TrEMBL record:
Coiled coil region boundaries: none
Signal peptide: none
Gene Ontology biological process terms in this record: glycerol catabolic process
Domain DhaL: 6-207
Any Pfam family the entry gives: Dak2
PROSITE patterns membership: DHAL
Domain of life: Bacteria
InterPro entries to which the protein is assigned, alphabetical: DhaK_L_YcgS, DhaL_dom, DhaL_dom_sf, Dihydroxyacetone_Kinase
Recorded GO CC terms: cytosol
An annotated Gene Ontology molecular function: glycerone kinase activity
This protein's name: Dihydroxyacetone kinase subunit L
Keyword DNA-binding among UniProt keywords: no
Length: 210
């Protein structure tokens, strides 16, 4: 089994749907340790992405083109830290997926490229209470699943499960990057909003692959 451009489009549409459904939760999480705009930022960005998909006159040729559209749209419509971070993630992922179909190792390449983009842009490592704490275990779980012969859908499910664990594990952490770091020790006890949105987006990828 492989994933094609229809999967990528479905992933993006499902991402928009889940981000919109969890808009208030993401706002509340960001209100606790940031400025409360993450749910609004992500909703604005993914709503713009779907509008662009709907307005396309010809279908996009490959997965990379879909991810590039997401990247450029998020970069121009999502403010704050998350816009450039997710934008860079999708741009790097697009460069890793200029192919018609992805097998399990192709899915790993996509996730690794996205994580590299986030780290290149934001310079965070694990344990700093950011989206990196969801992306890193997700990518590691994807590598392990692909190496053991899992299908692309199962690789994405493993990644989404690990992103969930990673996001929950941000709760006790003290933030040392991003706006939450201004709170110092008071950032502990709250789930990082970007780790939560990462989990939602990776779950959408897995569901689109089922
Ligand atoms: P802002 O912090 O500018 O208001 P958002 O609220 O949209 O932007 O996004 C906040 C999220 O961005 C955080 O929850 C965190 O996951 C992520 N983030 C912030 N800084 C970094 C960084 N340097 N590296 C990785 N992720 C980061
Ligand atoms: Mg914010």
């Amino acid at each position: 089994m492989t994933l094609d451009v229809a999967w990528a489009v479905d992933w993006v549409r499902r991402s928009a749907q889940t981000v919109i459904e969890h808009r208030d939760e993401l706002i509340e999480l960001d209100r606790q340790i940031g400025d409360g705009d993450h749910g609004e930022n992500m909703t604005r960005g993914f709503t713009a992405v779907v509008a662009k998909l709907d307005a396309l006159e010809a279908p996009l040729a490959d997965i990379g083109e879909v991810l590039k559209l997401v990247a450029t749209t998020l970069m121009s419509t999502v403010g704050g830290a998350a816009g450039p971070l997710y934008g860079t993630a999708y741009l790097r992922a697009a460069k890793a997926t200029g192919v018609p179909e992805l097998d399990s190792q192709g899915v790993v390449a996509l996730l690794e490229a996205a994580l590299e983009g986030i780290v290149a842009r934001g310079k965070a490592t694990t344990g700093e209470k950011t989206m990196v704490d969801a992306w890193t275990p997700a990518t590691e779980a994807a590598v392990a699943a692909a190496d053991s012969g899992a299908s692309p859908a199962d690789v994405l499910s493993a990644a989404a499960d690990a992103a969930h664990e990673g996001a929950e594990a941000t709760i006790p952490l003290v933030a040392t990057k991003g706006r939450a770091s201004y709170l110092g020790e008071r950032s502990a006890g709250h789930l990082d909003p970007g780790a939560r949105s990462t989990e939602l987006i990776l779950r959408a990828a897995a569901q689109a692959a089922q």
